[in-house]
């Protein structure tokens, strides 16, 4: 990762803009991809005057939004068909439908938070599509989430300057903790809703 960042820093500004956008896109498809660290490094380059912070913010936000909506589209057009045909044996159809109903109720709020939930962004986008939430409303909220999060990363790199590498370990720890907490929270919330419905049926 360190070597990749060093190569990025040595690139022509045009390529830095391109890499910032494409990595922000890919990260939504393959969650382990380290787009957050790249944007912090780009923030440092903004401080040196090598690239323009507004251009990096725009291209990274565009890339992140397009990546999210790509996964949304996959979920919308193919997600439920694949699950219902039983091609993914490890996925329980009944549980998928329960998650789908949960997303229809709370999905837009989760979309706003998605950029802050490292490690679960692709899953959120996929289930947003399966739940058939509004395409345009989802796009706007995903763009807003990406804009805020990317802005924070760029400003962090800008403020840290040459010490931007210090944030790498923090981002890694943050991503791991947020992923675990998010999955636990989602599981507890789904279990709570299921239990509440069962209690109503028993009354």
How is this structure best described in words?
The protein has 8 helices and no strands. The chain is mainly α and 203 residues long.
List keywords for this structure.
8 helices; mainly alpha; 203 residues
Topology:
Blueprint: H1 2-9, H2 13-29, H3 35-48, H4 53-84, H5 93-113, H6 121-130, H7 135-160, H8 167-202
Helix pairs in contact: 2-3, 2-4, 3-7, 4-6, 4-7, 5-6, 5-7
Strand content: under 5%
Number of helices, counting only DSSP H or I runs of 4 residues or more: 8
Report, as a whole number of angstroms, the end-to-end distance. 57 Å
Helix content: over 70%
Radius of gyration: 19 Å
Question: What is the typical, i.e. mean, pLDDT?
Answer: 77
- Report the principal-axis shape: elongated
Estimated structural class: mainly alpha
Largest sheet: none
Count of beta strands: 0
Short structural description:
With 203 residues, the protein is mainly α. Helices cover 81% and strands 0% of the residues.
């Amino acid at each position: 990762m360190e070597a990749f960042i060093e190569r990025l820093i040595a690139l022509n500004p045009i390529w830095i803009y391109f890499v910032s956008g494409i990595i922000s896109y890919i990260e939504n498809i393959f969650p382990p991809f380290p787009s957050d660290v790249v944007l912090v490094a780009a923030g440092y380059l903004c401080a040196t005057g090598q690239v323009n912070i507004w251009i990096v913010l725009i291209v990274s936000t565009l890339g992140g939004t397009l990546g999210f909506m790509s996964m949304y589209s996959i979920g919308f057009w193919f997600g439920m068909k694949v699950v219902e045909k039983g091609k993914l044996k490890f996925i329980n159809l009944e549980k998928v439908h329960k998650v789908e109903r949960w997303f229809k109720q709370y999905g837009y709020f989760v979309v706003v938070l998605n950029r802050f939930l490292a490690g679960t962004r692709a899953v959120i986008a996929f289930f947003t599509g399966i739940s058939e939430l509004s395409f345009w409303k989802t796009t706007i909220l995903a763009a807003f989430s990406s804009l805020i999060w990317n802005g924070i990363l760029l400003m962090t790199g800008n403020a840290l300057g040459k010490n931007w590498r210090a944030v790498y370990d923090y981002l890694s720890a943050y991503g791991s903790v947020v992923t675990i907490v998010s999955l636990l929270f989602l599981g507890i919330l789904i279990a709570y809703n299921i239990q509440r419905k069962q209690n109503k049926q028993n009354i």
